[in-house]
């Protein structure tokens, strides 16, 4: 029977789902839900895509402060602290929406959410890596991905549906104030839950002063780029999500846009239904099945298959853009296809970073570094996606997304493996 690394602690099933739900909610609130909120509040697609992508920069830069988290307390301490801080900041976002010039205030506060959320991710991944054996990491990777993305489904689905219903009765501003307030309540509640249920994830030990922190940071960077075949690995991490970075920002805007502008003309509530009902079970099922699939076959034999599952279903968006169906069942079926593939394929990238990139002296810091690079690969195409979409129109934009999948297939096929999956 697999044992936890640090002895007797709460069962992983009692904290992995809530921990990774808390990780996913702020990221998705900025990446997708805020896009719909700002669109409904009259902000242009290009401005939305640029700023909601730019403020996600902390998820790329987080390795720069990860060694300094070793100075104080435990990783659990930072998890709880950032969850509560993120919740409070969501309340402030809600209060900013009725103000004149609200966009600059809301974006600034969401940038603070991004800083807190990215710091949370470092500590949360530290708990996961330190508390679980390699076997348990592989066993629970599907659940980790599933609950991270359940946050995506609820944030971009159920809560968006709620916003749409509230818009009808109370107007756009009050509706999204309520949704931002709900995000705040959820994050604070998770922080209070984790005070009791989350294991420590290890105590501060490696770094004892700011000078040690800077020396450790330099050593983290130096040893990261000394890893064998690191150039290939970095290229893989960046390009695996290249097509997703384009599609994920524009898809909800495409669903919302009027049909005579090339969109599907869905209401806010219908978008919530499409993501929250049609996509939810498909995504969770894909994530969980992928964990068992990789556990049985091994990552090296599975990676290209996972890449295919991740990228090919983006064709569903091209189909919707070309045909502009009116049936919510047709639209929902396309989303089911895309979300199942998304959930199944995303596991490949996460496990590759854990098993091939992270192992070594600075396992947690190098995993943070890799995930920061991953988010850079997502952020850059997201930032320019609005301009490309405005230039090409939705139909040709989603055809471009299919072209953008090609680099992912290339790097997934050729990326080398150096660490055995038993030793990772």
- The helix/strand series, from N terminus to C terminus, equals HHHHHHHHHHHHHHHH
Distance between the termini: 19 Å
Q: Please identify which CATH superfamily we are dealing with.
A: MFS general substrate transporter like domains
- What is the typical, i.e. mean, pLDDT? 85
The CATH C-level name is: Mainly Alpha
Oligomer: single chain
Question: Which regions are unreliable across 5 or more consecutive residues at pLDDT < 50?
Answer: none
Radius of gyration: 21 Å
Q: Pairing-aware structural class of the strands and helices?
A: mainly alpha
Number of helices: 16
| DSSP helix fraction | over 70%
Main sheet: strands, sense, barrel: none
CATH topology (level 3) name: Growth Hormone, Chain: A
β-strand percent reads: under 5%
Helices, strands, pairings?
Elements: H1 16-40, H2 45-54, H3 58-61, H4 75-96, H5 102-131, H6 134-170, H7 172-197, H8 210-224, H9 230-240, H10 242-256, H11 268-297, H12 299-311, H13 315-323, H14 328-357, H15 363-404, H16 406-414
Helix pairs in contact: 1-2, 1-5, 1-6, 1-7, 1-10, 2-15, 4-5, 4-7, 5-15, 6-7, 6-11, 6-14, 9-14, 9-15, 9-16, 10-15, 11-12, 11-14, 12-14, 12-16, 13-14, 13-15, 14-15
Written account of the structure:
With 424 residues, the chain is an all-alpha fold. It has a single domain, classed as MFS general substrate transporter like domains (Growth Hormone, Chain: A, Up-down Bundle), CATH 1.20.1250. 77% of the residues lie in helices and 0% in strands. The protein is built from 16 helices and no strands. The chain has helices spanning 16-40, 45-54, 58-61, 75-96, 102-131, 134-170, 172-197, 210-224, 230-240, 242-256, 268-297, 299-311, 315-323, 328-357, 363-404, 406-414. Helix 1 (16-40) packs antiparallel against helix 5 (102-131) and helix 14 packs antiparallel against helix 15. The radius of gyration is 21 Å and the shape is globular. The model has no long low-confidence stretch (mean pLDDT 85).
């Amino acid at each position: 029977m697999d044992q936890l690394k640090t002895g007797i602690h709460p069962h992983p099933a009692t904290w992995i789902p809530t921990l990774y739900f808390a990780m996913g909610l702020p990221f998705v609130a900025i990446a997708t839900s805020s896009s719909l909120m700002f669109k409904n509040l009259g902000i242009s697609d290009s401005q939305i895509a640029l700023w909601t992508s730019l403020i996600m920069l902390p998820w790329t830069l987080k390795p720069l402060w990860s060694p300094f988290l070793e100075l104080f307390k435990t990783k659990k301490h930072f998890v709880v602290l950032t969850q509560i801080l993120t919740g409070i900041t969501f309340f402030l976002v809600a209060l900013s929406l009725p103000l004149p010039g609200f966009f600059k205030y809301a974006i600034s506060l969401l940038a603070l959410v991004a800083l807190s959320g990215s710091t949370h991710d470092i500590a949360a991944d530290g708990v996961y890596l330190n508390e679980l054996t390699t076997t348990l990491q592989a066993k629970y990777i599907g659940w980790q991905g599933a609950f991270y993305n359940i946050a995506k489904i609820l944030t971009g689905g159920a809560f968006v549906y709620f916003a749409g219903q509230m818009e009808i009765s109370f107007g756009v501003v009050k509706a999204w104030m309520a949704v931002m307030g709900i995000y705040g309540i959820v994050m604070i509640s998770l922080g209070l839950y984790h005070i009791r249920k989350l294991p420590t994830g290890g105590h501060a030990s490696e770094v004892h002063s700011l000078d040690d922190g800077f020396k450790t940071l330099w050593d983290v960077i130096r040893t990261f780029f000394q890893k064998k075949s690191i150039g290939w690995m970095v290229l893989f991490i960046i390009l695996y999500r290249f097509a997703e970075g384009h599609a994920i920002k524009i898809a909800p805007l495409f669903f919302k846009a009027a049909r005579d502008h090339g969109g599907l003309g869905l209401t806010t509530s219908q978008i919530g239904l499409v993501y929250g009902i049609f996509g939810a079970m498909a995504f969770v099922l894909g994530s969980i099945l992928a964990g068992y699939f990789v556990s049985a076959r091994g990552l090296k034999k599975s990676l290209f298959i996972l890449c295919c599952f991740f990228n090919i279903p983006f064709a569903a968006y091209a189909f919707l853009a070309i045909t502009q169906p009116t049936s919510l069942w047709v639209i929902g079926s396309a989303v089911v296809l895309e979300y199942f593939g998304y959930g199944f394929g995303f596991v490949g990238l996460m496990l590759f970073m854990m098993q091939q990139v992270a192992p070594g002296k600075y396992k947690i810091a190098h995993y943070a570094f890799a995930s920061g690079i991953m988010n850079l690969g997502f952020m850059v195409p997201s930032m320019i996606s609005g301009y490309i979409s405005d230039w090409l129109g939705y139909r040709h934009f989603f055809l471009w997304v299919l072209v953008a999948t090609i680099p992912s297939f290339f790097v997934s096929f050729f990326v080398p493996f150096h660490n055995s999956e038993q030793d990772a």
